[in-house]
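Form 7-S
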Amino acid sequence: MYKFLILAMTVLTMFSACQRDNILTQDQWGPIFKKYGIDSACFELADNNHDMIYIYNLQRASKRFSPASTFKIMSSLIALETNVALDENLIIPWDGVARRPEWDKDMNLREAFKVSCVPYYQALARKIGKVDMQKWIDTVRYGNKRTGPNVDDFWLNDTLQITPDEQVGFIKKLYFDKLPFAQRSQRIVRSLMLQEDSTHYKLYYKTGTQMPLRNNKKVILAWIVGFVEKRETQIGVVTKKEETNYKPYFFAMNFETSDTTMNTMDIRKKLLKEILAERRIIIHD
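Output:
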Protein backbone atom coordinates (compact mmCIF):
# COMPACT_ATOMS: atom_id res chain seq x y z
CA MET A 1 0.00 0.00 0.00
CA TYR A 2 2.82 2.39 0.89
CA LYS A 3 4.56 1.81 -2.47
CA PHE A 4 1.27 2.41 -4.28
CA LEU A 5 0.80 5.75 -2.51
CA ILE A 6 4.34 6.83 -3.36
CA LEU A 7 3.77 5.94 -7.01
CA ALA A 8 0.47 7.81 -7.09
CA MET A 9 2.10 10.91 -5.60
CA THR A 10 4.93 10.69 -8.14
CA VAL A 11 2.53 10.47 -11.06
CA LEU A 12 0.53 13.44 -9.79
CA THR A 13 3.74 15.47 -9.36
CA MET A 14 5.03 14.63 -12.84
CA PHE A 15 1.80 15.70 -14.50
CA SER A 16 0.68 18.49 -12.21
CA ALA A 17 1.19 21.07 -14.96
CA CYS A 18 -1.31 19.29 -17.22
CA GLN A 19 -5.08 19.29 -16.98
CA ARG A 20 -6.58 15.84 -16.61
CA ASP A 21 -8.39 16.11 -19.94
CA ASN A 22 -5.08 16.97 -21.66
CA ILE A 23 -3.69 13.49 -21.03
CA LEU A 24 -5.09 10.63 -23.09
CA THR A 25 -4.04 7.01 -22.63
CA GLN A 26 -3.32 5.09 -25.81
CA ASP A 27 -3.88 1.41 -25.08
CA GLN A 28 -3.98 0.68 -28.81
CA TRP A 29 -0.19 1.12 -28.88
CA GLY A 30 0.26 -1.98 -26.70
CA PRO A 31 -0.20 -4.47 -29.58
CA ILE A 32 2.42 -2.58 -31.60
CA PHE A 33 5.01 -3.39 -28.91
CA LYS A 34 3.73 -6.93 -28.42
CA LYS A 35 4.14 -7.58 -32.14
CA TYR A 36 7.88 -7.27 -31.56
CA GLY A 37 7.80 -9.39 -28.39
CA ILE A 38 8.01 -6.42 -26.01
CA ASP A 39 5.80 -6.40 -22.91
CA SER A 40 7.48 -3.74 -20.77
CA ALA A 41 7.30 -0.43 -22.62
CA CYS A 42 5.98 3.11 -22.63
CA PHE A 43 5.55 5.89 -25.13
CA GLU A 44 4.73 9.54 -24.49
CA LEU A 45 3.82 11.93 -27.28
CA ALA A 46 3.20 15.65 -26.73
CA ASP A 47 1.16 17.40 -29.41
CA ASN A 48 2.18 21.03 -29.00
CA ASN A 49 -0.36 22.25 -31.54
CA HIS A 50 -3.35 21.06 -29.53
CA ASP A 51 -1.77 21.03 -26.05
CA MET A 52 -2.40 17.29 -25.74
CA ILE A 53 -0.32 14.46 -24.28
CA TYR A 54 -0.80 10.89 -25.46
CA ILE A 55 0.63 8.13 -23.27
CA TYR A 56 0.94 4.39 -23.38
CA ASN A 57 1.76 3.04 -19.89
CA LEU A 58 1.58 6.09 -17.64
CA GLN A 59 3.12 4.19 -14.74
CA ARG A 60 6.32 3.43 -16.65
CA ALA A 61 6.43 6.92 -18.18
CA SER A 62 6.63 8.26 -14.62
CA LYS A 63 9.51 5.99 -13.57
CA ARG A 64 13.15 7.02 -13.72
CA PHE A 65 15.75 5.05 -15.65
CA SER A 66 19.34 5.60 -16.71
CA PRO A 67 19.31 7.95 -19.73
CA ALA A 68 22.17 5.99 -21.32
CA SER A 69 23.26 7.66 -24.55
CA THR A 70 20.26 9.98 -24.70
CA PHE A 71 22.33 12.03 -22.20
CA LYS A 72 24.57 12.95 -25.15
CA ILE A 73 21.99 15.63 -25.93
CA MET A 74 22.64 17.25 -22.57
CA SER A 75 26.40 16.75 -22.53
CA SER A 76 26.68 18.27 -26.03
CA LEU A 77 24.84 21.35 -24.77
CA ILE A 78 27.15 21.63 -21.76
CA ALA A 79 30.26 21.22 -23.90
CA LEU A 80 29.15 24.01 -26.22
CA GLU A 81 28.04 26.30 -23.40
CA THR A 82 31.31 25.94 -21.48
CA ASN A 83 33.39 26.40 -24.67
CA VAL A 84 34.94 22.97 -24.23
CA ALA A 85 33.59 22.58 -27.76
CA LEU A 86 33.62 25.84 -29.69
CA ASP A 87 31.33 24.21 -32.22
CA GLU A 88 30.40 20.78 -33.56
CA ASN A 89 33.84 20.40 -35.15
CA LEU A 90 35.73 19.66 -31.91
CA ILE A 91 38.00 16.71 -32.68
CA ILE A 92 38.96 14.27 -29.94
CA PRO A 93 41.65 11.78 -30.98
CA TRP A 94 40.97 8.06 -30.79
CA ASP A 95 42.73 6.53 -27.76
CA GLY A 96 43.90 3.53 -29.78
CA VAL A 97 41.68 1.00 -27.98
CA ALA A 98 39.76 -1.17 -30.44
CA ARG A 99 36.04 -1.24 -29.59
CA ARG A 100 33.82 -0.81 -32.65
CA PRO A 101 34.89 0.02 -36.22
CA GLU A 102 32.65 3.10 -36.29
CA TRP A 103 34.25 4.38 -33.05
CA ASP A 104 37.88 3.55 -33.68
CA LYS A 105 39.09 6.79 -35.22
CA ASP A 106 39.54 10.48 -34.53
CA MET A 107 36.18 12.23 -34.82
CA ASN A 108 34.37 15.47 -34.16
CA LEU A 109 31.27 16.15 -32.08
CA ARG A 110 28.83 15.74 -34.96
CA GLU A 111 30.35 12.42 -36.00
CA ALA A 112 30.48 11.15 -32.42
CA PHE A 113 26.84 12.05 -31.83
CA LYS A 114 25.78 10.28 -35.02
CA VAL A 115 27.46 6.97 -34.10
CA SER A 116 26.85 7.45 -30.36
CA CYS A 117 30.54 7.10 -29.56
CA VAL A 118 30.81 6.42 -25.83
CA PRO A 119 34.62 6.93 -25.54
CA TYR A 120 34.36 10.33 -27.26
CA TYR A 121 31.68 11.51 -24.85
CA GLN A 122 33.55 10.12 -21.85
CA ALA A 123 36.60 12.14 -22.91
CA LEU A 124 34.32 15.15 -23.46
CA ALA A 125 32.92 14.76 -19.93
CA ARG A 126 36.43 14.73 -18.47
CA LYS A 127 37.20 17.95 -20.37
CA ILE A 128 34.02 19.55 -18.97
CA GLY A 129 34.92 18.47 -15.43
CA LYS A 130 32.77 17.42 -12.52
CA VAL A 131 32.07 20.94 -11.19
CA ASP A 132 30.66 22.34 -14.44
CA MET A 133 28.87 19.09 -15.26
CA GLN A 134 27.05 19.11 -11.92
CA LYS A 135 26.34 22.83 -12.17
CA TRP A 136 24.50 22.50 -15.47
CA ILE A 137 22.66 19.33 -14.50
CA ASP A 138 21.42 21.15 -11.39
CA THR A 139 20.53 24.26 -13.39
CA VAL A 140 18.49 22.28 -15.93
CA ARG A 141 17.11 20.02 -13.17
CA TYR A 142 17.87 17.03 -15.30
CA GLY A 143 16.28 13.91 -13.81
CA ASN A 144 17.48 13.06 -10.31
CA LYS A 145 20.55 15.35 -10.83
CA ARG A 146 23.02 12.75 -9.48
CA THR A 147 26.49 12.38 -10.97
CA GLY A 148 28.28 10.22 -8.39
CA PRO A 149 32.06 10.07 -7.94
CA ASN A 150 33.06 9.75 -11.61
CA VAL A 151 32.39 12.37 -14.25
CA ASP A 152 32.69 9.94 -17.17
CA ASP A 153 30.17 7.17 -16.48
CA PHE A 154 27.29 8.41 -14.31
CA TRP A 155 24.81 8.46 -17.22
CA LEU A 156 25.59 4.82 -18.01
CA ASN A 157 25.40 3.08 -14.63
CA ASP A 158 22.06 4.13 -13.07
CA THR A 159 23.57 6.98 -11.00
CA LEU A 160 21.77 9.57 -13.12
CA GLN A 161 18.16 8.70 -13.89
CA ILE A 162 15.30 10.40 -15.71
CA THR A 163 11.68 9.59 -16.55
CA PRO A 164 10.31 9.44 -20.10
CA ASP A 165 7.98 12.29 -19.11
CA GLU A 166 10.97 14.40 -18.00
CA GLN A 167 12.68 13.58 -21.29
CA VAL A 168 9.71 14.97 -23.22
CA GLY A 169 9.76 18.17 -21.15
CA PHE A 170 13.51 18.54 -21.70
CA ILE A 171 13.21 18.07 -25.48
CA LYS A 172 10.32 20.50 -25.71
CA LYS A 173 12.38 23.19 -23.97
CA LEU A 174 15.29 22.46 -26.29
CA TYR A 175 13.06 22.91 -29.32
CA PHE A 176 11.78 26.29 -28.20
CA ASP A 177 15.17 27.57 -26.94
CA LYS A 178 13.84 27.53 -23.37
CA LEU A 179 16.75 25.68 -21.76
CA PRO A 180 19.27 27.85 -19.81
CA PHE A 181 21.78 27.67 -22.67
CA ALA A 182 22.58 30.08 -25.47
CA GLN A 183 20.28 29.83 -28.49
CA ARG A 184 23.33 28.97 -30.60
CA SER A 185 24.15 25.96 -28.41
CA GLN A 186 20.56 24.71 -28.60
CA ARG A 187 20.42 25.26 -32.36
CA ILE A 188 23.61 23.26 -32.93
CA VAL A 189 22.40 20.36 -30.77
CA ARG A 190 19.06 20.25 -32.57
CA SER A 191 20.97 19.98 -35.82
CA LEU A 192 22.95 17.05 -34.40
CA MET A 193 19.68 15.25 -33.73
CA LEU A 194 18.32 15.45 -37.29
CA GLN A 195 18.00 11.89 -38.62
CA GLU A 196 15.50 12.16 -41.50
CA ASP A 197 14.41 15.01 -43.75
CA SER A 198 11.60 13.81 -45.99
CA THR A 199 8.94 15.47 -48.11
CA HIS A 200 6.39 15.30 -45.31
CA TYR A 201 8.38 15.55 -42.09
CA LYS A 202 11.70 16.10 -40.33
CA LEU A 203 12.61 13.57 -37.65
CA TYR A 204 15.07 14.37 -34.86
CA TYR A 205 16.10 11.92 -32.14
CA LYS A 206 18.78 10.28 -30.02
CA THR A 207 18.79 6.65 -29.02
CA GLY A 208 20.20 5.13 -25.85
CA THR A 209 20.86 1.56 -24.74
CA GLN A 210 21.79 0.03 -21.41
CA MET A 211 22.02 -3.57 -20.15
CA PRO A 212 20.93 -3.48 -16.49
CA LEU A 213 20.26 -6.47 -14.24
CA ARG A 214 16.67 -7.42 -13.49
CA ASN A 215 16.27 -10.33 -11.06
CA ASN A 216 19.97 -11.14 -11.58
CA LYS A 217 19.50 -11.40 -15.36
CA LYS A 218 20.65 -8.94 -17.99
CA VAL A 219 18.01 -7.16 -20.02
CA ILE A 220 18.20 -4.50 -22.69
CA LEU A 221 16.86 -1.04 -21.81
CA ALA A 222 16.24 0.91 -25.00
CA TRP A 223 15.41 4.60 -25.42
CA ILE A 224 14.54 6.86 -28.31
CA VAL A 225 13.73 10.52 -27.55
CA GLY A 226 13.29 13.53 -29.76
CA PHE A 227 10.78 15.42 -31.87
CA VAL A 228 9.20 15.36 -35.29
CA GLU A 229 8.19 18.33 -37.40
CA LYS A 230 5.19 17.63 -39.61
CA ARG A 231 5.49 19.65 -42.80
CA GLU A 232 2.25 21.24 -44.01
CA THR A 233 1.61 23.62 -46.88
CA GLN A 234 -1.21 26.13 -47.09
CA ILE A 235 -2.11 29.40 -48.76
CA GLY A 236 -1.08 32.36 -46.63
CA VAL A 237 -3.88 34.65 -45.47
CA VAL A 238 -1.85 37.79 -46.20
CA THR A 239 0.52 36.71 -49.00
CA LYS A 240 -2.02 34.51 -50.82
CA LYS A 241 0.95 32.34 -51.70
CA GLU A 242 1.76 28.78 -50.72
CA GLU A 243 3.53 28.67 -47.35
CA THR A 244 5.22 25.80 -45.53
CA ASN A 245 4.69 25.35 -41.81
CA TYR A 246 6.20 22.85 -39.40
CA LYS A 247 4.13 21.44 -36.53
CA PRO A 248 6.23 19.93 -33.73
CA TYR A 249 5.50 16.78 -31.72
CA PHE A 250 7.75 15.63 -28.88
CA PHE A 251 8.27 12.02 -27.87
CA ALA A 252 10.05 9.60 -25.58
CA MET A 253 9.94 5.83 -25.87
CA ASN A 254 11.43 3.42 -23.40
CA PHE A 255 11.25 -0.37 -23.30
CA GLU A 256 12.96 -3.42 -21.85
CA THR A 257 13.45 -6.90 -23.24
CA SER A 258 15.06 -10.01 -21.84
CA ASP A 259 16.03 -11.02 -25.39
CA THR A 260 19.59 -9.71 -25.40
CA THR A 261 19.99 -10.77 -29.04
CA MET A 262 17.19 -8.45 -30.20
CA ASN A 263 18.17 -5.79 -32.74
CA THR A 264 16.76 -3.01 -30.62
CA MET A 265 18.27 -0.29 -32.81
CA ASP A 266 16.12 -1.22 -35.79
CA ILE A 267 13.09 -2.22 -33.75
CA ARG A 268 12.87 1.03 -31.79
CA LYS A 269 12.91 3.01 -35.04
CA LYS A 270 10.15 0.82 -36.49
CA LEU A 271 8.10 1.21 -33.31
CA LEU A 272 8.54 4.98 -33.40
CA LYS A 273 7.39 5.25 -36.99
CA GLU A 274 4.42 2.93 -36.51
CA ILE A 275 3.17 4.98 -33.57
CA LEU A 276 3.71 8.30 -35.35
CA ALA A 277 1.88 6.86 -38.37
CA GLU A 278 -0.98 5.70 -36.14
CA ARG A 279 -1.37 9.32 -35.03
CA ARG A 280 -1.14 10.38 -38.72
CA ILE A 281 1.89 12.52 -38.02
CA ILE A 282 4.01 10.76 -40.62
CA ILE A 283 3.32 8.49 -43.56
CA HIS A 284 4.76 5.04 -42.77
CA ASP A 285 5.60 2.60 -45.56
